[in-house]
Write a structure and sequence with these properties.
By secondary structure, the protein is an all-alpha fold. It has one domain (about 5-145): Ferritin, core subunit, four-helix bundle (Ferritin, Up-down Bundle). Helix content is about 80%, strand content about 0%. It is built from five helices and no strands. The chain has helices at about 5-30, 35-65, 75-80, 90-120, 120-145. α2 (about 35-65) runs antiparallel to α5 (about 120-145). The termini are far apart.
């Protein structure tokens, strides 16, 4: 299937934000403090690993569409819309990451509509899985932040 520019743009944004969230979650894993440290340290580890796997799938989808995946931190930072967090407390970190997962789920939903309009079912399928993952992680983080 030839790449549709709007689908490529949407995938690039989702990929950049996925990678940015992986880095933010890895930083949370390193820096979390307070009650629940051990549980959150482990949970954040699983989350950043899942996000890196997702980034790999998104980049490979771009390649399957004949496009180059973004290379380098500058390209990712330029395309990402998520911002750094400034908290180290467990509940605050969970709240910030929850919001980021909700933001990314919404970006995936917008990209899904673009892919469906273009008739790109493979990209649509990938994005449906990402929405489900972000929704589930946001729910878990909300429960941890409560």
């Amino acid at each position: 299937m030839p790449a549709v520019p709007a689908v490529v743009d949407a995938l690039n944004t989702v990929l950049a934000n996925t990678y940015a969230l992986a880095v933010k979650t890895h930083a949370a894993h390193w820096n979390v403090q307070g009650a629940g440290f051990f549980a959150l340290h482990d949970a954040f580890s699983k989350q950043y690993e899942d996000l890196l796997d997702a980034a790999d799938e998104l980049a490979e989808r771009l390649r399957a569409l004949g496009q180059r995946a973004p290379a380098g931190l500058k390209a990712i930072a330029t395309a990402a819309t998520l911002r750094d967090h400034g908290n180290d407390g467990g509940a605050a970190l969970c709240g910030e990451l929850r919001d980021d997962h909700r933001t990314l789920a919404a970006a995936c939903a917008a990209a899904l509509k673009t892919a469906q309009t273009a008739g790109d079912e493979a990209t649509a399928d990938l994005l449906i899985g990402r929405i489900d993952s972000h929704d589930k992680t946001a729910w878990m983080l909300a429960a941890a932040a409560a």
